[in-house]
């Protein structure tokens, strides 16, 4: 094989460096994702579940307390259950978004 054949088959210069950089980043990302096993998924599932359940239950408890103390034609329990659910969903969305930023 002549040296000119070798140079024509293999890239050199900035394009080659960029390809090496892309490959290295892809391998590092694959290695990080490999470390995220079933326990990581279960942990995220638990985090999302609790971040929704706790505000919802707090809303129900507060609503029941208000309904007992000051009876009204409106159900504070139902309204605060919905408000707690919304707060919990926003909270879990925040956690998931934060985790996605950390992975990048």
From TrEMBL:
Keywords: Membrane, Transmembrane, Transmembrane helix
Family matches, as Pfam families: ATPase_gene1
Keyword Transcription set for record: no
Matches recorded under InterPro entries: ATPase_gene1, ATPase_put
Superkingdom of the source species: Bacteria
Entry keyword Membrane: yes
Biased composition (Basic and acidic residues): 7-23
Residues passing through the membrane, by range: 38-62, 74-96
Region (Disordered): 1-23
Name of the protein: F0F1-ATPase subunit
Organism: Desulfobulbus propionicus (strain ATCC 33891 / DSM 2032 / VKM B-1956 / 1pr3)
């Amino acid at each position: 094989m002549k040296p000119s054949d070798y140079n024509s088959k293999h890239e050199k210069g900035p394009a080659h460096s960029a390809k090496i950089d892309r490959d290295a980043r892809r391998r590092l990302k694959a290695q990080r994702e490999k470390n995220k096993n079933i326990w990581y998924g279960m942990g995220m599932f638990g985090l999302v579940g609790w971040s929704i359940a706790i505000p919802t239950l707090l809303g129900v408890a507060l609503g029941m307390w208000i309904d007992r103390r000051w009876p009204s034609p409106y159900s504070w329990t139902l309204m605060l259950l919905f408000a707690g659910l919304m707060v919990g969903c926003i909270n879990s969305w925040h956690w998931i978004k934060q985790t996605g930023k950390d992975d990048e």
